[in-house]
Structure formats: structure tokens, C-alpha cells
Write a structure and sequence with these properties.
This protein is an alpha/beta fold. 29% of the residues lie in helices and 18% in strands. It has helices at 44-52, 66-69, 85-101, 116-127, 155-161, 186-190, 207-217, 249-257, 281-295, and strands at 24-29, 72-77, 105-110, 130-135, 165-175, 194-197, 221-227, 263-270. The longest helix has 17 residues, at 85-101. Bound molecules: manganese (II) ion (MN) (2 copies).
């Protein structure tokens, strides 16, 4: 079958393996009613899967062979409720709890960033409080948005309050832009998070930063949450809340490759909204980043 033919599961995986037989479940969460500005991330999973058919199984840079090392399949989408944010959040948590009961690592195609909260609830129920690598233009720690506690700008505030995170083992990378208040990033720092504003990343390799992140996060369970808007709109215009001056696609690869060796228990790639990028480049970048996540999961072997 040519790469453009057949059913577009993630990377043309079979999509039929029982979860009980998997080490890694790739999951779509088509959901965007937590979005504050431009909607469209509900089409992220479809867009990423469609572009992912271009990808091949072996990582020529790191020599990772994820599909030789782990049993990985695309387990489809969470059945979200497009008329209810709260019902969707419950459905997402239930779905992930059921997956984690099988002992899998989940790698999620979003969806807006609201979905990180129910996923982290399931993660913490399984693993206890987790460390977090959060890549984003925004800290997503608002107390509320339009009076609502659940939205795509609040998940890490709620996760901290609920004790789902180990705050000394949290890093936020790429944050930037204009704030509602001058001290917008200070709440994160007051909790013990490391906040790496994008200006610290400009014009340099992020390999040394990731050396520090690995020692900060240490041996415990880690969740990786990657908002595509952490990357500059030049590379990733297809997203709802773009911010100029962002990370390069190369730095995004360095961040994910730099997570190798950590005890990753789950990861997501959120906020891809394909309708704002007619070229498909944002979805293609998202697909590549999800692939790179698969390449750094515990148990992946590297060809010599
Ligand atoms: Mn976000
Ligand atoms: Mn963001």
C-alpha cells in the first residue's frame, strides 16, 4: 500500500490490537471547547494522523527503534461530548484510567490543553504525583477564565491544587508573550516550578537545558505535555493561540530527545488546529514530535 493509501491511523499502525497486549497506546482526544480564542483543535488528532503516514519507523538521528522495542498501537479516540466540557473531562479521565489499568504508557494527540487535567488525574491515580515537562507559550496556570475553573488556560493550576504534580519536579519551557498581569509567571515559580522563558532559549541549543531538566526531574514518574504553540508560528501556524518569538522546530526535537532516560509514564501533543494551516506543516510537525516521544519512552532500544 502506498503511504497515501489505506486508513490513516497514527503512522499506519494496525489500530486493532487489544489494549491488554500493548506497552504504548496512542490515543486521540478530539476536543476544543476549552479554547479561549480560535477553536479547531478538535481536528488535531485527524490532522496529525493524516500527516503521520509520511513517517518511517526508524529514527536516523538517535537510532531509536521504538516499534522493534515496544508493542505500540493507535487505540483510537476518546468519545468526547461536544456540548459539555465537564462531561468530556469526565469521559477523558475515565478513558485514561481504563487504559492505565492495562499498564500502558499513553501518548495522546490533542485536543486543546484542557485535556491535560483529566489525563493527569488518571496518571496521578496510577503513579502518584508526577513530574512534568510542560512546553508551551503559556503557563496555563490561570485561576479561572471567564469565571470557569476548567479551560485550556487552567489545567496546571488545577493539577497543582489537586496534588497531581510534584511541584519541585516541574519545568515549563518556552513561555512568552503578553500577560494579563506583570506577575503572570510568578505563580508557577512560587509553587517551585522551574520556568524557562523563551528568551533563555533563543539562539542556542537546548541540549544543556535538558541536561539540567533531567537532573531536576530525577528518577520518579514524569509526564510530558507539549503544546504546539510553544513552537514559533513560522513553524506551527496551525494553532489557536499563536505567540511570536517561539521555539524552533529543531529546539522542539532537542527537548523531546533530551527527555530520554526519564521515567516517562505518558505524553501529549496538544493544540494542533489544522484549519489555520492549509499546508499541513503544523500537523506534520506534530506527528514528528509524537514519533520522537515514542522514541524516548522507557524500554526503547537503540540500534548501534
Ligand atoms: Mn497550553
Ligand atoms: Mn499555549
Amino acid at each position: 500500500m502506498p503511504r497515501f493509501g489505506g486508513i490513516a491511523t497514527f503512522m499506519r499502525l494496525p489500530g486493532v490490537t487489544p489494549v491488554a497486549e500493548l506497552d504504548v497506546a496512542v490515543v486521540g482526544v478530539p476536543f476544543d471547547i476549552g479554547t479561549s480564542n480560535r477553536p479547531g483543535a478538535r481536528f488535531g488528532p485527524r490532522g496529525i494522523r493524516s500527516e503521520s503516514v509520511l513517517l518511517r519507523p526508524y529514527n536516523m538521528a538517535t537510532r531509536a527503534a521504538p516499534f522493534d522495542s515496544l508493542r505500540i498501537d493507535d487505540t483510537g479516540d476518546v468519545a468526547t461530548n461536544p456540548y459539555s466540557l465537564h462531561d468530556s473531562v469526565t469521559r477523558i479521565e475515565d478513558h485514561f484510567r481504563a487504559l492505565l489499568d492495562h499498564g500502558v504508557i499513553t501518548v495522546t494527540l490533542g485536543g486543546d490543553h484542557t485535556i491535560a487535567l483529566p489525563i493527569l488525574r488518571a496518571m496521578a491515580a496510577k503513579h502518584g504525583p508526577v513530574g512534568l515537562i510542560h512546553v508551551d507559550a503559556h503557563t496555563d496556570i490561570n485561576d479561572s477564565m471567564f469565571g470557569e475553573a476548567l479551560a485550556h488556560g487552567t489545567p496546571f493550576r488545577r493539577a497543582t491544587e489537586e496534588g497531581l504534580l510534584d511541584p519541585r519536579r516541574v519545568v515549563q519551557i518556552g513561555v512568552r508573550g503578553t500577560g494579563y498581569e506583570a506577575d503572570d509567571f510568578d505563580w508557577s515559580r512560587s509553587q517551585g516550578f522551574r520556568v524557562v522563558q523563551v528568551e533563555e532559549c533563543w539562539h542556542r541549543s537546548l541540549g544543556p537545558l535538558m541536561d539540567e531538566v533531567r537532573s531536576q526531574l530525577g528518577a520518579g514518574p514524569v509526564y510530558l505535555s507539549f503544546d504546539i504553540d510553544g513552537i514559533d508560528p513560522a513553524f506551527a501556524p496551525g494553532t489557536g493561540t499563536p505567540e511570536v518569538g517561539g521555539l524552533t522546530s529543531i529546539q522542539a526535537l532537542e527537548i523531546i530527545r533530551g527527555a530520554r532516560g526519564l521515567d516517562l509514564v505518558g505524553a501529549d501533543l496538544v493544540e494542533v488546529a489544522p484549519v489555520y494551516d492549509q499546508t499541513g506543516s503544523t500537523s506534520l510537525l506534530g506527528a514528528n514530535l509524537v514519533y520522537e516521544m515514542l522514541c524516548v519512552l522507557p524500554g526503547v532500544q537503540y540500534r548501534s
